[in-house]
Design a protein that fits this description.
The complex is a heteropentamer. By secondary structure, chain C is mainly alpha-helical. Chain C has three helices and no strands. Chain C starts with a helix and ends in a 13-residue tail after the last helix. Chain E starts with 13 loop residues before the first helix and ends with a helix. The chains are: A mainly alpha, B mainly alpha, C mainly alpha, D mainly alpha, E mainly alpha.
Chain lengths: 668, 534, 103, 507, 193
């Protein structure tokens, strides 16, 4: 029950953000307010506009510019190492509880701002083309704006509860966008699933936040960090609270066991998949844990859980991605797997790497999803890769950018993904988590394989496109290709710009102030980086495995004009019982969906029916039973009234005898 | 601050509806007297507008009251007292504090909305309907403002009769069963409450040697009853309030009453009537019987949590929209009782806030069901589908209020639930965690409903309605608009309510805490966090 | 025996009992009326007996007994009138056949 | 002396004189119903006024008010209880008379005989109200019940009426005989017929510490059964439903309140005043029977489709409620509490008189057209056929249910309050009473359901109500509402009942 | 008279013998009233029973009461009853059953009641016992017309009320329609057939 730090140490370690200037507060308000206004305006009048997207895109572009300005100011050190903070108003104040609506702009939120606004803006632009023919596009843009508002609030908020509010709002936007084509059954179900799975996680998350308040007496991040570490708290409670928070993060970031909603979320329009379900919202969990590292740092067992769950998710998702036929599902499982990486990083204490990977993966996966949207658009809303092939010539821009994304994701050196992923693996190993490293490297190989399987099936080999569609395949319009190109740029250069020099990168400098207290508490120290030596060796191993995966994929599925050996896949899979079983299991996502279906839908439904039966027949049954019984008793009582005087007289006489007997007995 | 001088504003508010009702009653004969021929339909319109005007005046007066109210001051304001039955020291005594002010505002607003919402749906016996509604308003306002227990009881029962008629006359097919169930259930509780009131008054008069003040709330609060009497009187009151709230397992009258009531009846039932129970618990049970409240809190908490989870789970499988919302009410009102009995600021303030929020949100949901029922004459979830395509405005509002009901942050529903859950986690640790599972089930049943009626293809049943399935009309929009605004406003600025209720609730808690402190041992040591924080 | 109050009271009680039995057992309304007369007489006997054994009560008891006799006469008048009226309706003096109203 | 006696007896004499006058007028000027009504109503109003004039009243009015008595030792005393009950009986007579023509005239039943018999009956009640001697009380009782039997059979061509009458008569006479035997026992044991004398004699020989002499116990049993029959307590209630259902409806109304209140008055005079030292002996039995009475009454009323029969059973339940007040008197240790029990009895009786008569009056008004039954179905859609009677009926029923702020609610509250003042087992009785009240709501509101929530029968004729009935309904409804809602009235009745009870219940 | 002090052999006082004889007559005829099949004979037995009671009144030293008993009961009430019996006698002769079906229960109840009452009477110590005191007619008259004058007047009212009402009820007016008489409707049917 001893505190982690003395009050003095806490004061030294945690340096509060500066008070923000009025200009900054106004700008932040604009960053938040523009998308919100865009949502409200588009929602109210968008239907009547000839270009329903106009308000919304304008709002986002403006917000992006302002946010970029703010972010660069922050990263540039204008606001000091620890950023700035401002409270707009007190949202809820009851007793000791004060929930303040305000923002904190430090380097972490600045980086998140850049990721969110830029990908968001590009997706908005992309959607102009992608949704051009949808009659409900005003709704789509309104929802997108709502999402942008919520996501920006999430990364800027200074209070747990405001983060939670934003957390729910991004969930809401996700729900609305997944279910955008709500008249169809699958999106409707998928949206509901996403919301409910998140609700389950959020329930724990919320209670975790409450516990934070109860233990620290504040809802403010920075105040709580100090209090948490200087207060006397049972380690068990610390870990329990951290696990509750992690559960929330795992829900939003679709970590096992909450991973099932994300692949289904691909029922939404592809830009949504890119923005929400790959690049931004699903990173919220990672962001939150990174934000609250001082909390997690004093709960090492909870961090272990984070690492284990991350590792498991990474492997699980990667193995599922190997066999999926739907192009977006492959990407979705890949997202899960990469998020797993990030959680691994969070769990082992490589927090910087987690955020780095978050950014790199965000741009990469955004690019890939938008690219897949372009592909799907080209082949007339076909998502099954077995009905694609040889598209690279017909949609060259898409192909080129997609290839960049695939290489980045596979961890090929110099692309963004390489830097971030290797930072994770490297730091995991360095910090002594070598089993995690081994699994991570294995997953890197799998990643290379499934990405190039995807490339092969989609762009290379023989065309399996519906002959009717074949002649109509064309490259997407500029509004769609433009964002692809724009996203390709950070995908290529992000690592080179902020990931170098290795071991002492720019991003490390940026984030050091944010993570320093946590590292001190956890007791992490990184040894000197040796490019020629251990660290370099680790890179070689992981790159080699990734290359191996790519090589196998190319051998099986071809590249450019090489012949694909699709039949080999089948024969491999069918060779014996074990591989066949594994193949089927992977194809069926390890049966988790079925398990959950039985467990929650069927069994839960049964329970609900049972309780309802109980309500009608037992509780209300008792109520009505009392009523019926009373009525029945009334009938019986009335039967005594026979209508015959003699019976009445007899009863009176008997009554008299009884009364007299009682009186006499009482008198004795 | 507005100075209302010697204007007896509370009595004015209470009796404006009565004046209106009498006016409506006498309007017909008066017109006949001055020989003005009015077409029956026009006469119905006169009744409608007359009732609306009355409700508007009451609402305006309550706003005036809110303006003149001093939220910094402790104790009751605008107290007005007069002897009623001097023999037993029974007074006509009314007064307002933050808690009652909030609920009075809710009442006048929802009555106004309900009357407006009845313009279309109520086509028969309009006069009687409007009179019932105004008398109902009188009763509800009286309950919230009474400071004499006898008066409180009288108003409590006055509420019963018009609601009985509203369900019984203008209700659905099974209305008679529902309304009788409602009345008998409520009566059982309230009559035992009467026993408790009388027992308290008697004890008071015995000790003080006079009947003067024996029913006076303020005097009784200070009196300090002995534990045995507290226990029994607590149970008497509790039964009445628990039935009204309704708490599990005394809830089964509610789904029936809601299902059969006309739309506006459901709105008022959910919006205000259920709150009478919560209000009673806060106003009477805690301050009057702090020892018993402390002793019985575990029981109440257990029932509340059971009700929260149970109501939510049962709601999942309800085939009827109104039944579904009714069970959601059971679940949501469980938050109220839970919040009250965890005895900390967050819990209690959250409970009051939840009452208001639930009134607005569930009221709106019932209005929306009414909208769809007007057009389809059906409420079966299975027969709906794809309403999003056909009636987008309706669908948007339905989704909005469903999410509000599910506790989406930023809307009113969240604040109350959060505060109550925070209070219960503070007081009960992991039990609060279990209670919080309710929010998951809430999402389940609400999203099931949304998916089934809003999403998907338009069902054949709805297709069959053709052009009769129109979107929300002007009057309906007018009834819903203030609720939307308030749901958002209270979600973003809960202080609007919390600032009013904090002070009086702190006083209530102080009484309870004092009683707890005088009791021997507390279980504070079991909690992982400092007790002072909650 | 004739000098003891108890003897007269027992006699009175026996008469009362016979009257009671008659009232309970008979079917004919007039027979029941007769039984009631027996009971009233039993009461009168008791009253007179009390008077006879309580000197200061003697005159009072006789007076009361007289009143009872008169009241009994009034009762008989009313009763017989009702019997006659009902006989016109129901064509029977047997009371167990009057059971149109029950439950 | 003669003037004093005259003043003491004034209301009683006016009522009896009125009865005689009506008989004579009918003899000489037959078939003048309007005249009869004018004289009857006018006379009763005069009687009301005279009661108020001769008092005594609980307040010092500053003018002549004569508490006096007749005979030495007193046979009849005019005390607060007498004046209060006189008012009640005269009001009951007045209301019943007002409700009668609408029912009687279309059925060709003679109004003069009815009026005279009714007036004789209430004069019996008034005699009990002031009776101070067992003989006078017995005579009063017979004067009350003999016309009552006749009234029950007043529709002599109606089989149900005569059937009810003979049942009422036979059982009533049986119980009178039992009661009389009980009186004989008391007389024999105490050697006294005076109410005060008996109390003194008993107080001398019996102070509650030694066992009750057996003969006295037997006498008490006989007396109890006699009066329990008269108030229609279970299991001596059987006559009520049949007699009520069979009687002409205005008579039913009268029977449900007049004889019942008179019987309670008898109880007050005999059990509370004369046999006060024995009160502990009957507390248990009466307490149990009170609970049983209200429960059985309510249960049996639940499924009744005939409204008169339903109200009959309900009146049994109300008997049970009133009995609670008696039990309070019997069990209280504190004189104030004992007196509050009696106050409950009195208040309840007064309130009950108005609301129950009112309810029956509406039934009677509906039955103005011969052939209309008192089945519940008759009430279907009444709210839309005849708004005002339906509204009044609703008020009466709500008051009977005990919904505030009507008279019935206050009556129940006061009785329950007195029970709670005793505490212990009496609190349980109070709870039983309240649960019963909730049960009763079911069948009272069932009538409301019929009136407002069902469609009228297709062939339901238009309803027309005579002026007398209208006036009577107005009176009854006014009383029902004012007793609850108009503080001066409530206060007046509370003061009066309290003063009367305090004088009576001296333990 | 030359009678011995007590009854020979039995050693009873003669009064006792008279008492027993009268009691026997009274109770016996009362029993015959209730047990008899024929209602007219019952009425006659009733008269005898009343007469026995009158004798006992005499024995109790109350000849005035005895006379009143004979005059009022035998002279008025019994005759009234006889008339009523005649009027209501069914044309089809006496009914098959004299007792109702549950007469045995009535018997048990009556016996229990009597048993209880006798027990209480015998177990009670009565305040005054022993000397028979006779009230003469003068005393009775004084009580009646002075102490109980008011009651006497009331009695007049009572009897008047009974007579007026009774007259109305017993009066024939067959021209008026009868209602609610299923049994009579049935019988009318039979008679017509």
């Amino acid at each position: 029950m001893s505190p982690i730090l003395s009050a003095e140490e806490g004061g030294e370690l945690f340096i509060p953000p500066q008070v923000a200037g009025e200009l900054e507060s106004l700008l932040v308000l604009l960053v938040l307010g523009l998308p919100l206004a865009g949502f409200l305006l588009t929602g109210l009048v968008g239907r009547r506009l000839s270009r329903p997207w106009i308000i919304s895109v304008a709002a986002i572009v403006a917000a992006t510019l302002i946010a970029t300005y703010l972010a660069f100011q922050a990263l540039g050190g204008t606001y000091g190492e620890h950023g700035i903070k401002h409270i707009y108003y007190t949202w809820i104040a009851v007793g000791d509880l004060r929930v303040e609506f305000g923002y904190v702009l430090d380097n972490l939120s600045a980086l998140m701002l850049i990721v969110v606004t830029w990908i968001g803006a590009l997706v908005h632009v992309y959607s102009i083309g992608y949704m051009a023919h949808d009659p409900g596009k005003w709704r789509f843009f309104a929802y997108l704006n709502l999402f942008m508002f919520s996501m920006l609030l999430l990364v800027l908020a200074s209070s747990y509860l405001v983060v939670f509010a934003a957390w729910e709002l991004v969930g809401l936007s996700s729900y609305l966008l997944i279910g955008f084509w709500y008249t169809k059954r699958a999106p409707a179900l998928a949206s509901k699933k996403a919301f409910l799975v998140n609700r389950v996680a959020d329930h724990s998350f919320l209670v975790g936040i409450m516990a934070i308040f109860l233990l620290t007496g504040t809802m403010d991040f920075f105040e709580s960090f100090i209090e948490w570490n200087v207060a006397e708290v049972d380690p068990l409670i610390r870990n329990a609270v951290a696990v509750l928070l992690f559960a929330g993060a795992a829900g939003k970031s679709a970590q096992f066991p909450f991973h099932v909603w994300l692949p289904d979320a691909m029922e939404g329009p592809t830009p949504v998949s890119a923005l929400i379900h790959a690049a931004t919202m699903v990173n919220a969990g990672v962001y939150f844990i990174a934000r609250t590292t001082p909390i997690f740092a004093s709960a090492p067992e909870a961090l272990l859980a984070v690492a284990v769950m991350g590792t498991f998710t990474a492997v699980l998702a990667a193995t599922i991605a190997l066999t999926q036929k739907d192009i977006k599902r492959v990407l979705a499982y890949s997202t899960l797997s990469q998020l797993g990486y990030m959680f691994v990083a969070l769990g082992v204490g490589a927090w910087l790497a987690a955020i780095f990977h978050l950014m790199a993966h965000g741009f990469t996966k955004g690019l890939l999803f938008l690219g897949s949207g372009s592909v799907i658009h080209a082949v007339h809303e076909e998502q099954d890769m077995t009905r694609m092939g040889a598209l690279w010539r017909k949609i060259p821009w898409t192909h080129a950018t997609f290839l960049i994304g695939a290489l980045s994701l596979a961890g090929i050196p110099l692309f963004a993904g390489f830097f971030s992923k290797d930072t994770i693996l490297d730091e995991a190993f360095v910090l002594g988590w070598w089993p995690v490293y081994l699994i991570g490297v294995l997953v890197a190989g799998l990643t290379g394989f499934y990405m190039f399987r995807l490339m092969g099936l989609t762009f290379y080999g023989k065309s399996r496109v519906d002959p009717a569609v074949e002649p109509k395949i064309h490259e997407s319009p500029a509004t769609m290709v433009g964002p692809l190109v724009a996203l390709a740029i950070p995908t290529i250069f992000l690592g080179l710009v902020i990931g170098l020099p290795l071991g002492d990168s720019t991003i490390k400098h940026w984030l050091e102030p944010v993570f320093h207290p946590g590292e001190v508490i956890l007791g992490i120290t990184f040894p000197e980086y040796e490019f020629i030596g251990l660290n370099g060796g680790l890179i070689v191993i992981s790159v080699a495995l990734a290359a191996l995966g790519i090589g196998v994929a190319i051998w099986l599925f071809g590249v450019f004009n090489t012949r694909a050996r699709l039949e080999t896949v089948d024969s491999l899979a069918r060779r014996d019982r074990v591989t066949r079983a594994l193949y089927t299991a992977s194809l069926n996502k390890w049966y988790f969906d079925d398990l959950y279906h039985v467990l929650f839908f069927r069994l839960g439904g049964l329970v609900a029916s049972g309780v309802m039966w109980f309500d009608v027949h037992v509780i209300d049954g008792v109520v009505n039973g009392v009523g019926t019984l009373t009525q029945r008793a009334g009938v019986e009582v009335r039967h005594i009234q026979t209508g015959r005087v003699q019976n009445y007289a007899l009863d009176i006489a008997v009554g008299l005898v009884v009364v007299a007997a009682v009186f006499i007995l009482l008198a004795r | 601050m507005l100075d209302l001088g010697r204007l007896d504003i509370l009595s004015l508010i209470i009796f404006v509806p009565l004046v209106g009702a009498l006016g409506l009653l006498l309007l017909g004969p008066l017109l006949k007297l001055v020989r003005i021929e009015v077409h029956p339909e026009r006469q119905d319109d006169l009744m409608r507008w007359g009732a609306l005007l009355t409700a508007l005046v009451a609402f305006a007066l309550s706003l005036l009251l809110a303006l003149a109210f001093d939220s910094e001051a402790t104790g009751f304001q605008f107290v007005q007292a007069a002897d009623w039955i001097g023999f037993f020291g029974i007074q006509y005594k009314v007064g307002v504090d933050g808690i009652s002010l909030v609920l009075v505002l809710l009442t006048t607003l929802l009555t106004l909305i309900s009357i407006l919402a009845s313009f279309g749906p109520i086509k028969t016996r309009v006069k009687e309907y409007m009179i019932s509604f105004l008398v109902l308003e009188l009763g509800m306002l009286g309950v919230f403002l009474a400071l004499d227990l006898f008066l409180f009881y009288v108003f409590w029962e006055v509420v019963l009769v018009p609601m009985y008629l509203i369900i019984g006359i203008w209700g659905g097919t099974n209305r008679i069963y529902a309304t009788i169930k409602f009345v008998i259930y409520t009566l059982v509780g309230s009559l035992l409450m009467l026993v408790a009131i009388l027992a308290m008054a008697w004890t008071y008069s015995q000790t003080s040697g006079t009947w003067v003040g024996a029913f006076d709330y303020l005097k009784l609060v200070e009196f300090g009853f002995d534990p045995t009497l507290q226990l029994w009187a607590f149970l008497g009151f509790f039964l009445a309030f628990a039935i009204k709230v309704p708490m599990w397992p005394l809830h089964t009258w509610l789904p029936d009453a809601h299902t059969e009531a006309p739309t506006a009846g459901s709105v008022i039932l959910a919006g205000v009537l259920l709150k009478l129970g919560g209000y009673g618990l806060i106003r009477l049970n805690l301050p009057l019987f702090p020892d018993a409240a402390n002793d019985l809190a575990p029981l109440v908490i257990a029932l509340s949590i059971a009700g929260m989870l149970y109501g939510a789970i049962v709601a999942i499988r309800q085939p009827d929209l109104k039944r579904l919302i009714a069970y959601s009410s059971v679940s949501h009102m469980g938050f109220v009782t839970l919040g009250i009995f965890v005895f900390n600021e967050q819990g209690v303030q959250g409970a009051v806030f939840q009452m208001v929020a639930h009134g607005l949100i569930t009221g709106a949901l019932f209005l929306l069901v009414g909208v769809i029922y007007e057009r389809t004459h059906d409420r079966t979830i299975a027969r709906m589908g794809g309403l999003g395509q056909r009636v987008p405005v309706f669908a948007t509002l339905m989704v909005f209020f469903s999410l509000a009901s599910a506790g989406l942050p930023g809307l009113a529903g969240f604040v109350g639930e959060f505060l109550v859950l925070l209070g219960s986690v503070a007081a009960l640790s992991w039990i609060g965690y279990v209670a919080a599972f309710t929010v998951i089930f809430a999402a389940v049943y609400l999203l099931y409903m949304v998916q089934n009626i809003i999403m998907g293809d338009v069902t054949d049943f709805l297709k069959g309605l053709g052009s009769r399935l129109t979107d929300v009309n002007r009057i309906e929009a007018a009834t819903l608009a203030p609720l939307v605004v308030l749901t958002v406003a209270l979600g973003l600025f809960p202080a609007l309510v919390l600032d009013l209720v904090a002070l009086p609730l702190d006083q209530v808690l102080a009484v309870v805490a004092e009683a707890a402190a005088s009791a021997a041992d507390t279980s504070a040591g079991l909690l992982p966090w400092p007790q002072t924080r909650c | 025996m004739s000098q003891s109050l108890e003897a007269y009271l027992v006699l009175s009680v026996l008469l009362f009992g016979i009257g009671t039995f008659g009232f309970l057992a008979k079917r004919n309304a007039i027979a029941m009326l007769m039984s009631i007369e027996l009971m009233l007489n039993a009461v009168n006997l008791a009253i007179i007996a009390f008077g006879a054994f309580t000197p200061e009560l003697a005159a009072q008891a006789s007076t009361i007994a007289l009143f009872v006799i008169a009241v009994a006469a009034g009762e008989a008048t009313v009763g017989l009138a009702i019997v006659i009226a009902i006989y016109r309706n129901h064509r029977t003096p047997l009371v167990d056949e009057y059971a149109s109203m029950k439950e | 002396m003669a003037t004093d006696a005259l003043l003491t007896l004034l209301p009683f004499l006016i009522v009896v004189g009125l009865a005689l006058a009506i008989v004579l007028i009918d003899l000489f000027v037959p078939d003048r119903d309007d005249l009869i009504m004018a004289i009857g109503v006018g006379g009763l109003l005069v009687a009301l006024a005279s009661t108020l004039a001769v008092g005594p009243l609980p307040w010092d009015m500053g003018y002549f008010s004569a508490p006096g008595s007749i005979g030495d030792p007193a046979l009849y005393t005019r005390d607060l209880l007498t004046s209060l009950l006189d008012l009640a009986f005269i009001s009951i007579g007045l209301l019943t008379l007002l409700f009668a023509p609408d029912y009687l005239v279309p059925r060709k039943l003679p109004l003069p005989e009815f009026a005279a018999t009714l007036l004789f009956a209430i004069s019996g009640g008034m005699l009990i109200a002031g009776g101070q001697d067992l003989l006078v009380l017995f005579l009063g009782l017979e004067l009350l019940v003999l016309p009552g039997y006749l009234l029950a059979g007043f529709a002599k061509r109606d089989g149900l009426s005569t059937e009810g009458a003979i049942k009422y008569f036979l059982l009533g006479s049986f119980s009178s005989a039992i009661l009389l035997f009980g009186l004989a026992f008391v007389l024999g044991f105490t050697g006294n017929t005076q109410v005060s004398g008996i109390a003194e004699a008993l107080g001398a020989v019996f102070d509650g510490s030694q066992p009750l002499p057996l003969a006295l116990a037997m006498g008490l049993a006989l007396l109890s059964v006699g009066v329990l029959f008269k108030i229609a307590a279970v299991p001596f209630h059987y006559w009520t439903p049949d007699a009520y259902q069979g009687s002409p409806t205005p008579v039913t109304g009268y029977l449900s309140v007049g004889p019942k209140i008179a019987a309670f008055a008898l109880i007050l005079r005999i059990f509370v005043e004369a046999l006060e030292p024995l009160r502990g002996e009957w507390a248990l039995v009466v307490g149990v029977l009170a609970a049983v009475t209200m429960t059985v009454g309510n249960l049996a009323a639940l499924g009744q489709d005939n409204i008169k029969r339903m109200l009959a059973y309900s009146s049994i339940a109300h008997t049970g409620y009133i009995m609670v007040g008696l039990v309070v008197f019997a069990t209280a240790d504190d004189p104030a509490v004992a007196s509050s029990g009696i106050q409950g009895v009195l208040f309840y009786s007064v309130a009950y008189a108005f609301m129950n008569l009112g309810a029956f009056a509406v039934v009677a008004a509906l039955q103005r057209r011969p052939g209309v039954t008192s089945q519940l179905a008759t009430f279907a859609g009444l709210g839309y056929r005849a708004a005002v009677p339906a509204l009044l009926m609703t008020i009466f029923l709500l008051s009977l249910t005990g919904i505030p702020p009507l008279a019935g609610f206050f009556a129940k509250a006061i009785v329950v309050l007195s029970a709670l003042e005793v505490g212990g087992g009496m609190a349980i009785l109070a709870v039983i009473m309240m649960l019963n009240a909730a049960m009763a709501a079911f069948y009272y509101l069932r009538v409301v359901v019929y009136m407002y929530m069902r469609q009228p029968a297709e062939d339901a004729p238009a309803l027309s109500i005579g002026w007398y009935t209208k006036a009577g309904l107005l009176l009854a409804a006014g009383a029902t509402i004012l007793i609850g809602l108009f503080p001066p009235v409530t206060a007046a009745i509370l003061d009066w009942t309290e003063a009367a009870a305090a004088a009576l219940a001296t333990i | 008279m030359g009678l011995p002090e007590t009854v020979p052999y039995l050693d009873w006082r003669w009064d006792d013998l008279v008492f027993l004889a009268l009691a026997g007559v009274m109770l016996g005829s009362a029993l015959l009233v209730v047990l008899g099949r024929d209602i007219i004979r019952s009425a006659l037995w009733l008269i005898l029973s009343f007469a026995g009671l009158a004798g006992i009144y005499g024995l109790l030293g109350s000849p005035f009461m005895a006379i009143s008993q004979v005059l009022v009961y035998i002279g008025a009430i019994a005759v009234l009853i006889l008339f009523a019996v005649m009027i209501t006698a069914s044309k089809r002769g006496p009914a098959r059953l004299v007792f109702q079906r549950q007469w045995w229960a009535g018997a048990i109840a009556a016996i229990l009641l009597v048993g209880l009452m006798i027990t209480t009477i015998l177990l009670t110590e009565w305040p005054h016992n022993g000397q028979v005191y006779a009230a003469d007619a003068r005393e009775i008259a004084l009580t009646l017309f002075e102490d109980y004058l008011f009651a006497f007047e009331v009695l007049g009212v009572l009897l008047l009320a009974a007579v007026i009402g009774g007259l109305y009820l017993a009066k024939r007016d067959d021209d008026m329609p009868q209602t609610n008489n299923p049994r009579q409707a049935m019988r009318d049917e039979e008679e017509r057939a």
